[in-house]
Design brief:
The protein is of the alpha/beta class. The protein contains nine helices and eleven strands. The structure holds ligand LMY7XDAE. Belongs to the tetrahydrofolate dehydrogenase/cyclohydrolase family.
């Protein structure tokens, strides 16, 4: 049986570390870090995620503020709000939940958040820093993916990693982070020829294609580590209830060394990494760190896992 990489437990550990950092900042006379979350429209899943983000902030002592805007909010009004938040010294992190309604140019909006407050790491400046290995705020899900990988493989040097999916939010940044960690990286997608054979050579597979149960058992070599970023809601015909499935046929992959479940794998790490990024952004803006933005190596940190290579105890 493959080991299950428990994203919830690792996220809790990271939250404890984040809380300790917030406490230390406050004890040193600094204000608590402040995060502002913007939600435009009434997408059900986005509402749930935003609520969770706000609640998680409370748990670690981050001040949070929420702007819920109607679905017909104009792009101009949204940009004006972001401009105001960019200038507000009490706001250290700004996050605009995506997807945004169709009439809004998402790229333009994400570009309008000042890079130092861009706790999602979506701004082109942060993307550029990541792809040149020069720091920057690392997007939350990719950062979480790396921490989950490092929980079972502390040193990726020379390992073969295959990323399935080429999105700006997950696939491309994960590929850059794996390269930074000295892995040999193959970036693929659902149209890649011979995908099963490419995956079969991999020591690490990161599946982020948004294609339910794409990765079959015979795509995976014995002892590989599998990180499943996919989350799709499907109707279970047997039970008549909705359930979540990932991009990996989980039951068929028990010959892997370790695998993330869905739910309970990558998802919880996304929010824990957001909190960690907010603290790093706040430290940068307060001048506590010389380097404004965080290098993921010293944020929630790889060193959290480098002792014995096991999943940390709760
Ligand atoms: N501005 C952003 N928008 C979006 C991001 C993001 O990082 N920044 N990511 C996703 C949504 N997301 C956070 O915003 C997110 C998705 C999933 C989870 C999660 O914990 N998933 C659970 C299952 C959830 C369920 O039951 O429905 C899991 O995998 O265990 C957290 C956050 C898109 N938008």
């Amino acid at each position: 049986m493959a080991d299950i990489i428990d994203g919830r437990a690792i996220a809790r550990q990271l939250d404890e570390k984040t809380k300790a950092e917030v406490d230390a900042l406050v004890a040193a006379g600094h204000p608590a870090p402040g995060l502002t979350v913007i939600l435009v429209g009434d997408d059900g899943a986005s509402q749930v995620y935003v609520r969770r983000k706000i609640k998680s902030c409370e748990k670690v002592g981050i001040r949070s503020n929420e702007h819920r805007l109607p679905a017909d909010t104009s792009q101009e009004d949204l940009l004006a709000l972001i401009d105001q938040l960019n200038r507000d010294p009490e706001v250290h992190g700004i996050l605009c939940q995506v997807p945004l309604p169709d009439h809004i140019d998402t790229r333009l909006v994400l570009r309008s958040i000042t890079p130092e407050k861009d706790v999602d790491g979506f701004h082109p400046v942060n993307v550029g820093r990541l792809s040149t290995g020069t720091g920057g705020i690392v997007p939350c899900t990719p950062l979480g993916v790396m921490m989950l990988i490092h929980s079972v493989i502390p040193d990726l040097t020379g390992m073969d990693a295959v990323v399935i999916g080429k999105s700006n939010i997950v696939g491309k940044p994960v590929a850059n982070l794996l390269l930074d960690a000295e892995a040999t990286v193959t970036v693929t997608h659902i149209y890649t020829h011979g995908l099963p054979a490419i995956c079969r050579k991999a020591d690490v597979i990161v599946a982020a294609a948004g294609a339910p149960e794409l990765v079959k058992g015979d795509w995976v070599k014995e002892g590989a580590v599998i990180i499943d970023v996919g989350i799709t809601r499907i109707m279970d015909e047997e039970t008549g209830k909705e359930r979540l499935v990932g991009d990996v046929a989980f039951d068929e992959c028990q010959h892997a060394k370790a695998i993330t479940p869905v739910p309970g794998g990558v998802g919880p790490m996304t929010i824990a990494c957001l909190l960690a990024n907010t603290v790093q952004a706040a430290k940068g803006l307060m001048g506590v760190n010389k380097d404004v933005s965080s290098d993921y190596h010293d944020v929630p940190s790889r060193s959290m896992f480098t002792g014995n290579g096991n999943i940390p105890n709760e």
